[in-house]
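Researcher: Re-running this chain for the archive, since the previous output was lost when a drive failed. Same request as before.
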Amino acid sequence: MFRRPLPLACTALAAVLLAGCGKDAPPAEAPATRQLDTAAPIVETILAGGDADARLLALLHKRYGPKAQLDGAWKDRWEDTEVIAMRPVERAVCARQTLPINGQAHTLLAVCQTIEDAATVEPGRVDLFVLRDGPRGTATDAQPWPLLVVAERLQTPAGHHGDAGSVQVESLGPQRPAFRLTDRQEGRGGLLVDRRYIAVHGDRLREVASYRDHIDNLARFDCRAEPADCEGTVFNVDFSTDVEQKEPVDGYWPITVRGQGQDCAGPAREYYHLMFDPATRAYQVSGDLQRNDCGGT
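Model: Regenerated structure tokens:
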């Protein structure tokens, strides 16, 4: 912000002080922008007192109204801008964990939304928040003090048939906490289970990996729930994930994924080593880990 120039008389005194008649006053320096240690800009500041539960509840009430609660679900209406309609939903806090980022305590909070009139192929929604207490000053627990929303990702599609699936908080690196979203997709003759990681990265929440947790075609019409009854090839593969706590790249540890079960060509034994790529800001995921049918074995 700059000061507006002040008119000055052309007097001897003005000439001495300003070294010339009619010149503008020098601009003031812009005030320093206050940022968190994480370099994440503050999206929103909420003033709330009390313990951690009370302060989080204040956030929920501001965002979702007085019916919101930390424990249990509440009924609500959602303005779906795609179909221009108010739709019935059920919301609930589905993940919450406090952990340090760069030496400061942050809370990762997820609110899942189940759409009650959803079609089978329609996903649910998840709102993801990264929160941090602001400076207290002289405030006491009974007085309001800042709760900062340092990052958020709203209305993230997840799950199917209006159900957002499950959300957990995990660490992908020493300073890389992440939300893990697990989606089940039933239909087309089988089941797909997806794992997605949305991590705290710089000034935002980024999706850094997406791949299968399970894949099968056992719901085919000719299987009658028993693989031995299926006509032709079947597949039924589970994948397990291990985040290796060593040698991080841009703060992210390597991920090992192993597949085991029955693939179209016989027993499945699969192994994948996922490394983070700073250029794309995501893990490099093999196409085999995102397939809908048989693998290459």
